[in-house]
Design goal:
Elements: H1 6-10, H2 34-46, E1 52-54, H3 56-60, H4 64-74, E2 78-80, E3 95-98
């Protein structure tokens, strides 16, 4: 647990965000691991009742179009979190609604 003093929590920070970050030792691998994708697709094909849970990351990453394409390609229904609402069009036939207390019965 990290506990920060109240004055630090309430303080305003800079609105500057660098376009490039260089941290020694931090070099994320952004390549697409095809073997992992194949494994995921095999598991998805074996699933009896698959469902996608789309969260806010879909919107933050601006991949709503790709998410919709994935849903249409796989014919897997989608539920969203509150932050993920809009990850695919809410009028889409495979969109079920929100999950949890804010979802549909």
């Amino acid at each position: 647990m990290v506990d920060l003093p109240k004055d630090v929590q309430k303080a305003y920070g800079s609105d500057y965000y660098p376009t490039e970050i260089s941290i020694r030792g931090y070099k994320p691998d952004t390549s697409v691991p095809i073997g992992q994708i194949d494994k995921a697709l095999k598991l998805l094909n074996k699933a009896q009742r698959p469902i996608f849970l789309a969260g806010g990351g879909v919107k933050i990453s601006h991949v709503q179009k790709e998410m919709t394409e994935l849903v249409e390609l796989t014919h897997v229904p989608v539920v969203t979190t509150i932050m993920g609402k809009g990850a695919i069009p809410t009028t889409h036939e495979l969109y079920i609604g929100n999950i949890g207390i804010h979802g549909s019965v």
